[in-house]
Design a protein that fits this description.
The chain is mainly alpha-helical. Strand 4 and strand 5 form a beta hairpin. The longest helix has 24 residues. The radius of gyration is 20 Å and the shape is globular. It starts with a helix and ends with a strand.
Length: 227
């Protein structure tokens, strides 16, 4: 796609990242986001797609690709670079005007852009909870939570990056512990230090797995581990 080549060139020349990426990985990241939206069109034997959803796909393809570019390429850049990318993307395609392109989610069922805060249920703060235990959703945390689930449910890896103290760990923990289908996904948390070895990591993982047969280990039957 011509736009993808253009945005990759703009990214290389103008944007700064928290962790350096390479071009093939950015391509792959964009396609991973696109794939997540197309899962409903991957059919098992005997399944069919309703004509209404096929018609919706024609309308949704371009916005899906725009969303994938924003998060697949811009998800790893710093805050000033996100502002630059917002201006550049708006010069190429139409986006809602009120917030930045990173503050919107494309709803493939309603076929429209929605703000991240419009995608979650508004809940009152529990006054009995200690202040230190309160977690207040923001557009950033809601967006990151969506991307984590969007990629994890495809059985693909996710790397969350950003400055210290921006809520990466708590966002990941909250998503894995309460935001994924508990009937399918079980979280498995590992903490690394400078002394952690590969063998120790292997032992920790083996200790959590069920033995299927000789030499084969895995999560409990019917479950998937998110590590």
């Amino acid at each position: 796609n011509e736009l993808l080549d253009e945005v990759l060139d703009f990214h290389k020349r103008n944007l700064k990242e928290f962790v350096a990426t390479v071009e093939p990985n950015l391509w792959r990241s964009v396609l991973n986001v696109v794939d997540g939206f197309l899962k409903e069109y991957v059919l098992q034997e005997g399944q069919v797609i309703e004509n209404e959803r096929l018609e919706a796909l024609k309308q949704n393809l371009e916005p899906i690709f725009m969303f994938a570019i924003v998060w697949g390429i811009g998800g790893a850049v710093d805050v000033p670079s996100k502002a630059k990318m917002d201006v550049w993307m708006r010069g190429k395609k139409n986006f809602p005007a009120k917030m930045t392109v990173f503050d919107y989610f494309y709803d493939v069922n309603q076929c429209k852009w929605r703000g991240w805060m419009d995608t979650i249920e508004q809940k009152p703060v529990d006054p009995r909870k200690p202040f230190s235990d309160l977690i207040i959703p923001t557009p950033e945390t809601v967006g990151y939570s969506f991307v984590i689930e969007h990629i994890c449910t495809q059985m693909k890896h996710v790397l969350c990056i950003g400055p210290t103290g921006t809520g990466k760990t708590i966002t990941v923990k909250q998503k894995l512990m309460t935001g994924m289908d508990p009937a399918v996904y079980s979280p498995l948390f590992l903490t690394f230090s400078a002394q952690t070895s590969a063998n120790q990591t292997q032992d920790i993982l083996d200790g959590k797995m069920d033995k299927r047969r000789k030499g084969y280990f895995g999560p409990p039957a019917g479950k998937r581990y998110c590590i």
